[in-house]
Design a protein that fits this description.
This protein folds into two domains: 102 residues, Translation factors (Elongation Factor Tu (Ef-tu), domain 3); 112 residues, Nucleotide-binding domain of ferredoxin-NADP reductase (FNR) module (Rossmann fold), CATH 3.40.50. The strands form two sheets. It has a seven-stranded antiparallel sheet. The chain has five helices and twelve strands. With 245 residues, the protein is an alpha/beta fold. The longest helix has 13 residues. The structure holds flavin-adenine dinucleotide (FAD). Flavin-adenine dinucleotide binds next to strand 4, strand 6, helix 2 and strand 12.
Length: 245
């Protein structure tokens, strides 16, 4: 069974930006390393699927980001930031990532569980979300066993924002073009779609109102048992530093 739900210990580390890469027009990868990271990378749960950390920017503000991948030999972890605005009025994390440079310091606290827990008898997995969920989707997909059927629904703002998703599992990906209302296109794609038969697991993340809608009108209306899904708002339109209750 692919396990993530143990309560991980939480560590705080001071990281140093080692590299900055543009992955797509709206996604920037920040590689964080430095001596302070060793203990964090040794912490239980840090390498679990969709594990996340709280990133404290040089300004001191903190935001949640998924651990996209870890290079244990180099002592670094990758965080993929959605660029939804380049000035601080649109969001300090996005603005910082837009201009980040090697050598800057970041505080990192965590890890926290990404909520993914595959039942032992599962034959399929559905992963869905917007660009903020992509690092989690990629992290989960990369760790699935080969005999699982995986369907991914990913909403991005342009075809250039699509990314490779590597997985040993049998993977099918549907890229969904975002509309001006975040999450609407994802909801429209999913709401009338039947689920595969047999045991499976659904992991969904993205804009809070869209996730709430999918919870009510997709998961609950189909009576999906609570232990067979995770659905979490990763941000909320019009609200800074949103946390889902
Ligand atoms: C567990 C978890 C894991 C996450 N992992 C990732 C990740 O790997 N990569 C990632 O990019 N995000 C991730 N997020 C989402 C990220 O934490 C939020 O998008 C966060 O609000 C960004 O902070 P900010 O300072 O840029 O904007 P904020 O100051 O929080 O918000 C300012 C304004 O920007 C808007 N806004 C925030 N995010 C977005 C967005 N994505 N698109 C459009 N408008 C937005 C808000 O509605 C608000 O109006 C994750 C969230 C959670 C809870």
């Amino acid at each position: 069974m692919l396990e993530t739900a143990s309560k991980p210990h939480t560590k705080k580390a001071l990281g140093i930006v080692q590299a900055v890469h543009s992955i797509t027009p709206h996604m920037r990868r920040i590689t964080v390393g430095g001596e302070g990271m060793a203990e964090l990378l040794d912490t239980e749960g840090i390498n679990d699927p969709a594990a996340w950390v709280k990133v404290f920017l040089p300004s001191g503000e903190g935001r949640a980001y998924t651990v996209r991948s870890i290079d244990f030999a180099a002592g670094t972890l990758d965080l993929d930031f959605v660029l939804h605005g380049a000035d601080t009025s649109s969001g300090p994390a996005s603005a910082w990532a837009s201009h980040a440079s090697v050598g800057e310091h970041l505080g990192i606290a965590g890890p926290r569980s990404g909520g993914f827990l595959l039942p032992g008898n599962a034959s399929w997995v559905m992963l869905a979300g917007d660009a903020t969920a992509l690092p989690g989707i990629q992290s989960i997909a990369s760790r699935l066993p080969a005999d699982i059927n995986v369907k991914i629904y990913a909403e991005v703002s342009s075809p250039e924002d699509q990314q490779p998703i590597d997985s040993p599992a049998r993977l099918r990906t549907q890229w969904i073009q975002a509309q001006p209302e975040p999450g609407l296109a994802l909801c429209q794609s999913l709401l009338h779609r039947p689920l595969p038969t047999g045991a499976g697991y659904i992991w969904i993340a993205g804009e809070s109102a869209a996730i709430r809608r999918l919870k009510m009108h997709y998961l609950q209306e189909r009576d999906i048992p609570r232990h067979c899904f995770s659905a979490k708002g990763y941000w909320k339109a019009g609200e800074a530093d949103h946390r889902d209750a």
